[in-house]
Amino acid sequence: MTILPNQLSVAEFALRVIARPSRGSVFVLVCPGDLVERVLLRLMSELQIQGDTPTQHVSEPHNAGELIFAISSARTQSLLIVSGLETFDDENWQRLDLLRSRLLRDGAMMFLMSQAAVGRLSENAPNLASWIGGSIWNVDLLSELLSEEEREARLQTLREWAGRTDDDVQELAASGLLSKEPEYVEWLILLKRPDLIGNA
Amino acid sequence: MLSNSPKEIIDLLQRASEERADGTRAIQIFGGATMDKGQATDEFFVRTDGARISFGVSVLYPPAAPSTLQAYRFHLRYPEGSNPTYIRIDLNRGIGGDALMEPRSHIHVGAESLRFPAPMMTPLEVLEKCLYGLPLPPA
Questions:
Q1: Contact B13 A195 (CB under 8 A)
Q2: pTM of the entire structure?
Q3: ipTM exceeding 0.90?
């Protein structure tokens, strides 16, 4: 079975983790392998900002037994993030499926894993997959970035406020005569001309 | 403290990211609208007392050096009929300029042309000030 989760930003994922009653809650955030470290740092920050519960991290357990030991050793109330499951083979997932009751804890647990690992989980650990249910999302790292329409709307606001055009601002910046007010730095970034910030 | 839902707060936080030729990344963080001119929109963080907040923070991240805060603006608009109508705390870009008329770190109290010097604060300090340290002016 192929799982195609919906997209969710890290902040919204953290919000769902914090908002749900934690006992027995298991979440999965799917993320490309090369982005795991970046997403992990962001997720831990968001959980700290949005919740008052300590967060612990289990990284790259060698096998199912080591993972279960790490989970049972963690503080039971803490939020627990598990990453580095890409090396788990079919046998490890099958073993984890058999021992799934050992995953039950008071604090919520999150698996941060690649799409390939999710595929192995769903094929070899059907009971665990059922436990996770719909609590699985693809990380969306672009939703916080301005769209072109939003960028243009903000630029238009700045043009009306200053009574100047984009060309005016770039010329003033290039000649070192641009006002030092914060709105003009925003303007240059929105124009995709960060090179002019230093000259301005 | 805020009447916005957590989801609304997340949606109000946006950013733009651009890279210079030397690898320096310029990040602009937006919290709500670019300008607060009293427009009737939902693009603001709204305090439970009716005051509303918007902000922008500009930072440069060079590839092999500490990041540098370039500029910020934090705009707190009080409810209709308040006096002053708003307070804005700005950090201008770079040194230079007229330190008497426009100090780099300054506060506007209800007027664009009035700039009072302010201590240099981190963006989080200013945000906390806007959230907790600037109550409604007396009626």
A1: no
A2: 0.87
A3: yes
